[in-house]
Specification:
This protein has 15 helices and 15 strands. The protein is of the alpha/beta class. The radius of gyration is 21 Å and the shape is globular.
Length: 372
């Protein structure tokens, strides 16, 4: 049997993906269904997320893969999640539907996958789901309103974006058009977190338009993609409260990143963006538990990432890079040494998944200098 194995699932990507490994991860071959080999880690995390969520619900849950492509995510969920689920795989391309059917049959997953052919907006308008996943080629924004409305109360909305240049400020005009947000902090080391928070803020604002609350519970930036998972709930008053979690990011007088309500004529700044926590600790603990005994595509990398996410779940926004403060503070200590000193001084300090050298901390420049 041909194809490739990802996790515990045999997939059948387009021949161009198999024969031309130099193809851009986000590029789709003309006339062929979309498959992105660079999303294996993303799909690993989906398996753990859905399993953790289904176990927490204590019943069968339904998952909408609105832009299923070759069915890689849909069938991996159906085959690898060790909890009762039904996956609805939808795509508008006939070639994609054929690929999904082949993948479902090869993995004996017909009992757990319902295949739909049609426009994603119409599919999402047909009913509500416990989990709605958007994994487009580019920005999820064209589908966001439909996804918010299709997510059941207490369910999860997952949105992946591969237009990271727009989110991280490299292409500010595109960021303004797609996300209705300004990003003037591309020169900062933590520009990727600003992008994640802009995406989270866009989801929160979309939910509020329908008197719903969308609270980010998992936010990841990795390589060419960013992904935010938000819990969606009903409630006008709660939506009003959630909107108060939107703010701007600025650089303070000491050169450190901060979130604060600030006159938008000030420079540099970015926003509106989600100012609350990026991750929910209990969800990450449940995902780590779900990883026990699992055979994932990138098990080591996935587990290491989960551990880092757990560390920064309650950490302050943004981070410092010790080497970048050398001019102001002198020869920097090693990252882990600095974290230990900050923690012993009663300050918050941890690593971040967004920068191997970064230290998340609420310390001021004076406090950093004293512990340098």
């Amino acid at each position: 049997m041909d194809g490739v194995v990802e996790g515990q699932t045999r997939l059948f990507p387009p021949s161009t993906n198999l024969n031309k490994p130099s193809r851009s991860p986000g590029e789709r071959a003309k006339g062929q269904p979309f498959y992105n080999p660079g999303m294996a880690l993303n799909r690993d995390l989906s398996v753990l997320l859905v399993e953790a969520f289904a176990k927490a619900k204590g019943r069968e849950i339904d998952v909408a893969d609105a832009l299923a492509g070759t069915g890689a995510r849909s069938v991996r969920l159906a085959r690898e999640v060790r909890a009762p689920i039904l996956v609805h795989a939808n795509d508008a391309q006939p070639e994609a539907i054929a690929a999904i059917r082949r993948t479902v049959a090869a993995n004996d997953a017909a009992a757990r996958v319902s295949i739909h052919e049609g426009d994603a907006h119409l599919f999402l308008a047909s009913r509500r789901f416990d989990v709605v996943d958007l994994d487009p080629c580019g920005s999820p924004m064209p589908f966001l309103d439909a996804a918010v409305r299709a997510t059941r109360h207490g369910g999860l909305l997952c949105a992946t974006a591969t237009d990271t240049g727009a989110l991280a400020g490299k292409f500010p005009k595109a960021g303004r058009r797609r996300y209705d947000a300004h990003h003037g902090l591309h020169a900062q080391a933590w520009r990727s977190e600003v992008g994640l928070r802009i995406l989270g803020g866009a989801i929160a604002r979309a939910a509020a338009r329908f008197d719903r609350v969308a609270t980010p519970v998992l936010s990841i930036s990795h390589g060419h993609w960013m992904r935010v998972v938000a819990r969606v709930e009903d409630g006008k008053k709660d939506a009003d409260v959630a909107l108060k979690q939107l703010a701007n990011a600025t650089v303070d007088g000491e050169g450190l990143g901060r979130i604060a309500l600030r006159d938008q004529t000030a420079a540099p700044w970015a926003g509106p963006l989600w100012a609350g926590s990026l991750h929910e600790a209990t969800l990450l603990d449940a995902m780590a538990a779900a990883a026990e005994g699992q055979t994932l595509a990138r098990s080591k990398e996935t587990l290491e990432l989960l551990a880092l996410l757990r560390q920064e779940a309650d950490a302050p926004p943004f981070w410092v890079v010790p080497d970048l403060l050398q001019k102001q503070l002198g020869q920097p200590p090693r990252r882990d040494v600095l974290i230990e000193r900050l923690q012993k001084a009663g300050l918050r300090a941890t690593r971040t998944h967004l920068d191997p050298q970064g230290v998340r901390t609420d310390a001021s420049l004076a406090q950093l200098k004293a512990l340098w």
